[in-house]
Write a sequence for this structure.
């Protein structure tokens, strides 16, 4: 009988080429960074358990889970709104895995480990909004989409969870998006095409923004 060896790989392993892309005669207007090796758990309230889920989440994480389209952050975890009575738990280092969270939420929610089912891409730079505006109908102006705002939306017809993180030290906005792994490579190439005219700095990172 054949033996199988399962090795976890980035969904962008073959598509992501670190370095410069697009226009070379200007300072890169966009940074595209794939974040790798994260834990992502979707928490969904069971029928009639929304209030109990909210109480449990506050006790478990020390902060209320978002009940509107936004994210909330602590030192070691980010909670991302993904719909009514549901949210993602994004973290690193194995502190908030399904095995650890299942006991706390056993009476109020169903959990789904999405750690290897999604790709996480960070988009930043002076032209980040201009690039995303080509592909999304979301109004990303700071007055409409402030820091910690979130949306379950689409980028070029691909479903994503999009949220705005803290600005970079140079004041440029940072947008993060989660996309299903099976669509990640297609979306990556679409974003590269949209960003090429501005100049792109491509990289990957082990650090959450």
């Amino acid at each position: 009988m054949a033996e199988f060896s399962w090795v976890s790989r980035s969904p962008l392993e073959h598509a992501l080429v670190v370095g410069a892309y697009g226009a070379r005669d200007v300072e890169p207007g966009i940074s595209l960074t794939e974040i790798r090796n994260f834990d992502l758990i979707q928490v969904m309230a069971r029928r009639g358990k929304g209030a109990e889920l909210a109480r449990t989440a506050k006790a478990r994480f020390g902060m209320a889970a978002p009940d509107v389209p936004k994210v909330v952050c602590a030192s070691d975890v980010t909670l991302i709104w993904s719909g009514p009575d549901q949210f993602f738990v994004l973290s690193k280092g194995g502190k908030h895995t399904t095995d650890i969270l299942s006991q706390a939420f056993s009476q109020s929610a169903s959990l789904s480990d999405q750690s290897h089912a999604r790709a996480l891409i960070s988009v930043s730079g002076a032209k980040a909004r201009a690039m995303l505006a080509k592909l999304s109908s979301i109004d990303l102006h700071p007055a409409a989409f402030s820091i910690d705002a979130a949306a379950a939306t689409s980028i070029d017809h691909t479903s994503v969870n999009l949220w705005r993180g803290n600005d970079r030290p140079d004041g440029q906005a940072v947008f993060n998006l989660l996309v299903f792994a099976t669509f990640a490579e297609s979306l990556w190439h679409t974003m590269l095409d949209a960003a090429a005219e501005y100049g792109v700095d491509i990289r990957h990172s082990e650090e959450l923004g």
